[in-house]
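If I may wish for something, please sit down with the protein I am sending here and say whether tokens and residues agree:
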Amino acid sequence: MESFIRTLQALAFAAAMLAAASTADAASGYPTKPVRVVVPFGAGGIADLTVRAVADRLAETLGQPVVVENHPGAGGVVAAQMVVRAAPDGHTALLISNGTAVSAGLFKSLPYDTMKDLVAVSTLGAFDIVIVAKGDAPYTSLAQALAEARAHPGRLNIGTISVGSTQNLAAELFKTRAGIDAQVVPFAGTPALLAALLGGSVDLAVEILGPVRPQVEAGKLRALAVMGSARSRFLPNVPTAMETGVKDLDVASWNGLAMPAGTPRDIVDRLNREVNDALRAPRVQARMADLGVEARGSTPEAARALLESEILRWSEVITRAGIPRQ
């Protein structure tokens, strides 16, 4: 009996070693074909341009093309579903972002479980969300705008892009944290939002810094505050909303990469190393800085924790704002 048990133990050990060797061989040979990154946004936007900057560098270091595919619409559900259904072999990735977290709270049901069916690889970048006013607005600070809102409840209009977007929910959270009675007015996109702000239809706008940065630098718009916990490296003289007295408001946008659940950990770790190396490359950092994005990688664990915390945060904001689940 003892010899039989020893034989079983030896066979089990050999099987484990063979499995480990096979996994290592798969990781060392990865990738064996082009890697595609599915982006749930249209071409030319901040998220798309960010991932393309990283993809160009990854193609050089991985030795295979890294192809960016744009599949916008349906709150990112279509793109995520494509990746969830893909083979978990490391050759298909999804650009995840605040939008991924928002969709988990905004939709009554999804055809996948965000936390169970995706494995996070790394964050890619962080970008500031700003509160802007028209360049010749009567108030020159957020404190003045808040004083106006409190003196005339319900009169202040805050423009954002579409309902359920990160910017729209950030404006709702801003209202709550600032304790003001204001109207959040959604628009179809950034051009329509800026036209309304410059035309005087809304008093303030909440938007990602990148698309409004040229107008801020040209003086057409005035940045009153950034919504994160620290001042933006791109607008160092603009205070945070918390500096002006809005308590517990820490909102910034971000994006990262994830793969289908079941992707071997060795492959996840390999891509994580390559992504973080790419984000340290001066060329990539310069391209991202031009977009108003701070290159910021992470471990897989940190990326997963961020996604999980953002799902919780935005689900609470959606519920508090009374936004109907879709």
In short: The longest helix spans residues 2-28. The longest strand covers residues 118-134.
